[in-house]
């Protein structure tokens, strides 16, 4: 089997999706399953659909094209405001998109008319994350322009939280978003079909007891794929945190318990540096590096310690003398490590439990950072 590789347990993704879809359904909130961290991998998207998601979301048109090329025909929404230069492709591949700029919406409308389609527009409102979004005071005027524009249809409003600021939304934010949806309807007519309350960071609110108001959609990536709350990193009850596993290969095991004495040819290069505590540990080198993963997003299995990494090498301290050249070492990844690994060239993506299983009895998820050796 080739390394490095990411092993993907599709059954766990299906279960995570269906757990979230059914819990949110009780609150009348739909799930837009966000596939971007898996780079639009069609089998992973299919697992989300098999788990009950009705709509897919991605930030990049390349990923959506990959889904379409694989024959996935469900509605896909672009969750990052489209690039002006990609309007034609966005209209061709996506039923709708999240938007913040009227010039882009005009271009989408032009492309839609040319293609004989109507493209759905969801207006993204700035509500405190200070990343993307229309300022609430400008929302009405922009919505009115969209409503008058042939080729596009105003489908709703949405907001994003906790991406740049790290602060989770609360009930007050959700009430404000609900009122914005109603005010926009009052001002310019069409029913706001979608009121999208944010990403995985909003699950705590969504699964709580406060009324959902007009909020009827969440865009969920991390919670489905990794089963964790993005803010705390904690496991979400009932979800699997180990659907993805990174498998790497050992290429050097020579014990280097003592840092070798380095003589610098140029004394100016000699800098003090911190030495890791190396008691009883030996170093192994794995054939993976910054080019393939976010090294700081790997959880070290018990008895292993991250010493450092370069573009193509990952150096680990271990007290396990059994690791040989060619041995495989497995890691769980956080979201950032996952998205880099899935996008890395030369990474094998190995699907396991490819078919939906008949039995729907859920097993308890395994503890976090489990070593699967
Ligand atoms: C990435 C992204 C999401 C999904 O975020 P998760 O934390 O993975 O749930 C939702 N909305 C927008 C706008 C995004 O960029």
Brief write-up:
This protein has ten helices and 16 strands.
In this entry the ligands are: pyridoxal-5'-phosphate
Report the radius of gyration as a whole number of Å. Answer: 23 Å
Shape: elongated
Give the number of helices.
10
Give the DSSP E fraction (strand runs of 2 or more residues).
15-25%
Question: Unreliable segments (pLDDT under 50, ≥5 consecutive)?
Answer: 358-373
Q: What percent of the residues sit in helical stretches (DSSP H or I)?
A: 25-40%
Mean pLDDT: 89
Distance between the termini: 15 Å
Report the order of strands and helices: EHEHEHEHEHEHEHEHEHEEEEEEHE
What's the number of extended β-strand segments? 16
Helix/sheet category: alpha/beta
Query: Main β-sheet: number of strands, strand sense, barrel status?
Result: 8 strands, mixed
